[in-house]
Amino acid sequence: MAEVTRSSSQAWLIGPVSHKIQGMKLPTSRQVLSVFLHQHKILGQTIRDSSRYAVREVLHLWAMARIPTTVEWNAIVKLEEMFHRWQKLKKNINCRTATQIANESALNEDLDKLFDVAHANALTMITIDEDRAFLEDQRGPRIGFMAGVDTVLSAKEERKAKRPKRHEYLKSVQDERKRASMVTDVAAELISDEESDTDAVNADEFEPCCSSSPTHTRSRPAPVMTPELSAALDRSNVSNRKATFVLAETARSLGHNVMDLALNPESIRTSRLKFREQSAQAVKADFHACAPLVVHWDGKMLPDLTGSELVDRLPILVSGFDTEQLLGVPKLPNGTGEAVSHAAVTMLHEWKIQDQVKAMTFDTTAANNGRKSGACGAIETRLDKNLLYLACRHHIHEIVVGDVFKHCFGASSGPEIGLFRRFHDYWPCIDKSQFQTAVDDAFCAEVFTKLTNLKEVVAFAKQVLLSSHQPRDDYRELLESTIIFLGDTPPRV
To answer: Cα separation of 456 and 433, whole Å?
Structure first.
């Protein structure tokens, strides 16, 4: 571990960095940034990982104070905005203008204020007056502080949490008693029937039996889940608990005794997990690739399956001659090239197709084609061979078209083009049945008179639409828009 010097443990305007939030008050922005910078500067974590660590420390303290909080993702965004504000001012530390000094003073004041991650309706959601007063105090003078754990309230909440389990246990005991009573009644009926049959038998035909009295053997509940039913539940996104209700009522309406069927959330969950694993193994076993393959990947931010925060997901697939297969969509710890390369190579080894991969398709981001830490170079290193680079033509054309647009209309001041945004917002107000093509417009018609290959452009677009399959809808839309713009009607196959 590298030696930590005083310069590295001290942050401008923040003070000493710390690995943990100290004190019994809700943390200020200065304390949160101190923990963030310790993770980011001292331990070398990424901005996202550092902010997630610091925010979870904050949410833990707010949970101790029993104050409703916003979701983790909103707190992470707020912390990163504060960090970028601090970072921007630090870059101009040597520029001692009046604006710079005023911005530094404003930031210094904001750092001593509460890092507020309360829910938007926290004051109305809080039921204890002391907790509400504590939140208002922390947003203002910050005089109060948290004491020890409220043992009375903790015991009350613990009893409240145990109450549903107690009800479920008592209900299960009651059901068992009912079933035992039913078994006793059936056994009594069987014994009485046997006694009546015995009286009707002649004495010389009676043979003594050395076996014990008849006992009732409880039959094993019949399984309900099948691979097809499991797949249908997954496609319709039905939870295990809801599936229990639906299947139980369906079985009852068909005349089945629900007590004879294995219907409960746990058995359904186990069956669905088993069938998913079997399906995945069957797909891997049936996939045989002999031709050269191209591996594709494209990272996406998707909601986590076990929470509300967004996580990095990486869809990975391979394609080749008459072959196209999705390998998986693993969750990444971060969006760096190292994480992407590790996930891609792991998938290739799981499917045992690393020797067939000859090329890579990727979008043109620094995380993919970076010279030092790009995913492409890392994949080649892990596979120990050179691969053909097939950068996404869609992204490459975006760069070219973007430069043309910038030359014609000037640079944009934001991530979105204002012209397109206004057109997008005004689109619902446009009467789409009344439109003009380029040949109907005087200005465009004058420009087109100087061009001699318009008919060839229309003929080419029609030929491509009729003769080849378009892998993307936007490709087809571009060809059809070109034909309509030039005054013709696109064909439909």
So the answer is: 28
- At 163 the pLDDT is 73
Cα dihedral value 474, 477, 481, 484, nearest 10? 170
Neighbours of 58 (CB within 10 A): 22
Per-residue pLDDT tens over the stretch 219-236: 677 788 888 888 888 888
- Residues 417-454 as b/e (b if ≥16 CB within 10 A, e otherwise) read beeeeeeeeeeeeeeeeeeeeeeeeeebeeeeeeeeee
CA atoms within 13 A on the CB side of 242: 6
Q: How far apart are CA 194 and CA 210, in angstroms?
A: 16
Q: What is the mean pLDDT of residues 362-389?
A: 89
Residues in the chain, total = 493
Residue 26, phi-psi category: left (phi > 0), alpha (psi -120 to 50), beta (remainder): beta
Res 204 pLDDT > 70: no
Give the pLDDT band of residue 155 (cuts 50, 70, 90).
Answer: low
Give me Rg for the CA atoms of the chain: 35
Does pLDDT of 316 surpass 90?
A: yes
* Burial readout 367-397 (b: 16 or more C-beta within 10 A, e: otherwise): bbbeeeebbbbbbbebbeeebeeeebeeeee
What number is the average pLDDT over the span 413-418? 77
Phi then psi dihedrals of residue 114, to 5 deg = -65, 135
Q: What is the pTM of this model?
A: 0.44
- Which H/E stretch holds residue 61? helix 47-64
Class of domain 289-391: alpha beta
Torsion of CA 123, 125, 128, 129, to 10 degrees: 20
Per-residue pLDDT, 212: 42
Q: Which of 115-119, 172-176, 419-423, 482-486 has the lowest mean pLDDT?
A: 172-176
Tokens of 248: 């139980």
As a whole-number percent, the residues of the chain with pLDDT over 90 amount to 14
Cα-to-chain-centroid distance, residue 291? 34
User: Which residue is associated with the tokens 């043109």?
Assistant: 364
- Nearest Cα to 465, choosing from 480, 453, 455? 480
Tokens of 184: 């006793």
CB atoms within 10 A of CB 291: 10
Dump pLDDT digits (tens) for 433-460.
887 888 788 888 888 777 778 888 889 9
Reference 111, options 134, 136, 137, 89; nearest CA is 89
